[in-house]
């Protein structure tokens, strides 16, 4: 072979190898993101975890074409001079110490994106006092590239809200997590989420969910809802007319594309083979970064908004708990925990997560550690449901025939200052509060076994899975699993967490 021909052959193989290497190199990257309240010096920081405020600024700042946002409400701009605000009466110096500037920076990044003519779609609930959806309305004012809609899920399910916290930038970069569009969620509330970059396949499915909610906001709910007797939850409920809680012959055709079609069953059908993303992604924030193909997934609530082969959110939580290895550990962090509904007119009993926990304690000898927030707006009957879950430990050892060595441990998480939150002034009188309203709480919602991580937006109450909009991202990627375990363990082992039994007995 001539030297020139040999050179050509070698060059061809070199280019082919480089092309193959480039095409196989993962483009998708994932980081965990966290908000840590100020004044928590004894909480260890987990290396490689990003701050929520920075992630939201990057998503807005890097957007070139479009930015879609799902939000419950807006309070990125603090209002210490508004008597109706929970920030009222705090000084400018105190607000800066609390980190209110983080919210301003995120809002400014959204204004800048809108001024760059990025197409901005905002889907939200009606908001909360004092100004409800004023901030998003201001973003849309005079900007035809900004669309702003309010969706009242109570019109569709009888109760429920848009509770998901999702940002999607340019159809490839995303935030999914517990942080609201609120300055307090960036520096005064404990939040956990995931930041995905360069992941268009995942973003495409997340956009379908966004578009489903967007479609609902423009439909007349009275034309598409029915009241039915729900056999699964033993309650009369209002649901979309294509719901699986309606017998198949009585359902309407869904106005949403790609909704799941399954024969009628009592209760919403779990998917035997839910859709997974087999996409390699890098984890730059972790020392365990791997480019292997580990499965990841999305799950959605309410179940009537699931599509194709994507699972309802409840199934994602249950299967994360059940993914634990024999003798392994499951870690669960939540703001609220109830084995029932909270907002439905007719109260329903809900044992899905409790049953899954008891099952792995018995059959897999697993340890389940649960961290529940204790704060100014703590739900009073939480204690009773946690006590009933702790009784699994008694049942585990109740018979000589039991080969049960698992256990559930539960702690309350108290962010310092939680009992001193609210406006600093009331009718010009000092209140003695140390922090603004609705702060100083662990607000994250996630579960992580020894093999699988599940990061969500929903509180662990029935309503959040069946009448409320929520999204979760889950993965078997060992780097994310290990780092989420680190975040949990830092909270669990901190002096801010105390066993439920000790707090119950002292009250």
UniProtKB/TrEMBL annotation:
Q: Tell me where in this chain the PLD phosphodiesterase domain is found.
A: 158-185, 438-464
Check the record and name the SMART domains matching this protein: PLDc
Which Gene Ontology terms cover its molecular function?
Answer: catalytic activity
Q: Which UniProt keywords apply?
A: Signal
What PROSITE patterns does the entry give?
PLD
**Family matches, as Pfam families:** PLDc_2
Kindly indicate where the leader peptide sits in this chain.
Answer: 1-18
Has keyword Signal?
yes
Q: Which Gene3D superfamilies match?
A: Endonuclease Chain A
- ATP-binding among the record's keywords? no
Protein's name in the database = PLD phosphodiesterase domain-containing protein
